[in-house]
Design goal:
binds iron/sulfur cluster, 17 helices, 36% helix, 430 residues, single chain, Dimethylsulfoxide Reductase, domain 2
C-alpha cells in the first residue's frame, strides 16, 4: 500500500513523502533526506522504548501503563516545584494537554524552544517581525541569507524545496536568479554554494548587524572593518540587498547562541524591518525539532506567554530566566520533572545533567534515550506523524496535519493520550 505523508525529521515538515508499506513494514520511501529516512527506519528499530518501567532505589521494574501513569501523577502531586519540559517533538494536542496538566498541578511548563528558537518571540516583541511563508519565499525571494545556520546539516531539503534551487512564480530561473549570502564564523556546507560568504568573528554578530544598520541609514563608519568584515564589503552587501526585489534571512543557533543571544536577533529583525523601506525583506527561524514553533504558538494562544509558564500562583506567569527550566534547574529549584520527547541528559552540560539525575524524572519518549535510562518512571509513546496523528507548526508558522500510517507496537498510546491520562489521575487524586 502506498501513502503520501509528512516527515517529522525537522521543522521543515516536508509534505511530499511517499511510503510503500507491506503490512506493518516500510519497504521503500521517496523524497526523504538521510535525516528523515533515519527517523522513519527507527520506527521499527531496536532502540524503541516499548514497555513502561518504574525505578525504585536499586531495581527497575516493568509495569503496566496504568501503573506508570499512577506513579507519574503521584510524583507530580508530591512535588513543590514540578516542571514539564520538552514539547518540541510533541503534537499541538499534546502541548495543549501539557498546559492543562501544568495548570492542574500548579507547576511550570517550558519547551526546548526557551534555549533555542523560542527567543524569536522575545526579540519579536521588542522589534516586530516581518515574515512570510516558505511558499512566498520560493516564489519571490531573489536574496537568500543564511545567518548562523547550515541547512546542509539541520534541514537538508531546505535549499531544494524552498530557498535556493526551487523555482517559483517569479523565480522561474531558480538558482541563477537568486543571490545567496552566508554569514557564519566558519565555512559551512551552505557556504560552499554562497555567492557571498561573510566570515564573522565569533561573538561579533551584534556589532556587524549594528554596522549594517548604520550603513543602511547612510552613515560613514570610521573603521576599516567590523567583526572581521571590511566596511567596503558591508556597504556592497547592503547596496545589493536594496536593489533586489525580495530578501529572506534564515537565522539559526549560530546567531542565537553567540554573545548577545536574543539581542542579536532583535538587532537583525530591526535590520530586516529597516530594509523594508527600500524593498521587501523577511526573517524566518531555522527551528530544529519539528514542533518547536508549535509550542510557542499554542502556549501564547492558551496562556498569553510563549514559554516558561508558571502556574504556581494560579494565573499563568512567565519571566525568562526566572521561570525557564534551565535556570530553575541551575538554582536547584526543581524537585520533579516530566520530560517529553527530549533528551536533556545528553544535550545539557554535565553539571545540569547531574542535577537532573538527582530529582524524580518522568520520561515520556518513543526511544530508549540516555534520559530514559535515568528515569524514575518511563512511559513509551507512539511516534507522532508515523503512528499517531496531530498538528504541528512548520518553521514558517504554517500548521500542518500529521497522519498515522503504522500501528504503534504493543498498543502504545499517543503522547497526547498519555498526558490526558496523567491529568485524569491527578484530578482523581487531588
Ligand atoms: S528536510 Fe527535514 S522534514 Fe524534510 S525530509 Fe529531511 S528531515 Fe524530513
Amino acid at each position: 500500500m502506498r501513502f503520501k505523508t509528512v516527515c517529522t525529521g525537522c521543522s521543515l515538515l516536508c509534505d511530499d513523502i511517499i511510503v510503500d508499506l507491506e503490512g506493518e513494514k516500510i519497504v521503500s520511501t521517496f523524497n526523504l533526506c538521510g535525516h528523515g529516512e533515519e527517523k522513519f527506519l527507527r520506527a521499527r528499530g531496536t532502540e524503541r522504548l516499548l514497555k513502561p518501567f518504574v525505578r525504585s532505589r536499586d531495581s527497575v521494574r516493568e509495569v503496566s501503563i496504568s501503573e506508570a501513569i499512577e506513579k507519574a501523577a503521584e510524583i507530580l502531586l508530591n512535588a513543590e516545584r514540578p516542571v514539564l519540559w520538552g514539547w518540541g517533538s510533541s503534537s499541538v494536542e499534546a502541548q495543549i494537554a501539557g498546559i492543562e496538566l501544568a495548570r492542574e498541578i500548579g507547576g511550570v511548563i517550558d519547551s526546548t524552544g526557551s534555549i533555542c528558537h523560542g527567543i524569536t518571540w522575545l526579540a519579536a516583541s521588542e522589534s516586530g517581525l516581518y515574515t512570510a511563508t516558505l511558499g512566498e519565499v520560493m516564489s519571490r525571494a531573489d536574496v537568500v541569507v543564511y545567518w548562523g545556520s547550515d541547512p546542509g546539516h539541520s534541514h537538508p531539503r531546505h535549499l531544494s524545496r524552498y530557498s535556493v534551487l526551487s523555482r517559483g512564480i517569479y523565480t522561474q530561473s531558480g538558482y541563477e536568479q537568486r543571490r545567496v549570502y552566508v554569514f557564519d564564523i566558519r565555512r559551512t556546507r551552505v557556504g560552499k554554494i554562497a555567492n557571498v560568504l561573510i566570515e564573522v568573528e565569533p561573538n561579533k554578530d551584534y556589532e556587524l548587524i549594528t554596522a549594517m544598520r548604520l550603513i543602511l541609514r547612510g552613515k560613514k563608519l570610521q573603521f576599516d572593518s567590523v567583526a572581521g568584515v571590511p566596511i567596503k564589503t558591508i556597504e556592497k552587501v547592503i547596496q545589493e540587498w536594496k536593489e533586489r526585489d525580495f530578501g529572506v534571512v534564515f537565522y539559526g543557533m549560530g546567531l542565537l547562541a553567540s554573545r548577545g543571544k536574543y539581542r542579536n536577533l532583535e538587532a537583525l529583525l530591526k535590520l530586516v524591518w529597516e530594509m523594508n523601506e527600500y524593498t521587501s525583506f523577511v526573517a524566518l527561524p531555522m527551528a530544529g525539532h519539528f514542533n518547536t514553533i508549535g509550542f510557542n504558538h499554542t502556549a501564547t494562544w492558551v496562556t498569553g506567554h510563549p514559554s516558561g509558564i508558571d502556574f504556581s500562583r494560579g494565573a499563568p506567569y512567565a519571566n525568562p530566566g526566572e521561570t525557564t527550566f534551565v535556570e530553575m534547574l541551575q538554582r536547584g529549584e526543581v524537585d520533579a520533572a516530566l520530560i517529553i520527547g527530549s533528551n536533556p541528559m545528553s544535550s545539557f552540560p554535565t553539571e545540569l545533567a547531574r542535577k537532573l539525575s538527582q530529582i524524580p524524572l518522568i520520561v515520556v519518549d518513543c526511544f530508549r534515550t540516555l534520559t530514559v535510562k535515568h528515569a524514575t518512571v518511563a512511559i513509551p509513546t507512539a511516534i507522532t506523524g508515523i503512528e499517531a496523528g496531530g498538528i504541528a507548526y512548520r518553521m514558517d508558522s504554517v500548521p500542518i496535519i500529521l497522519r498515522e500510517f503504522l500501528s504503534p507496537p504493543e498498543s502504545i498510546l499517543s503522547d497526547a493520550d498519555i498526558i490526558r491520562s496523567i491529568i485524569e489521575k491527578v484530578k482523581r487524586k487531588n
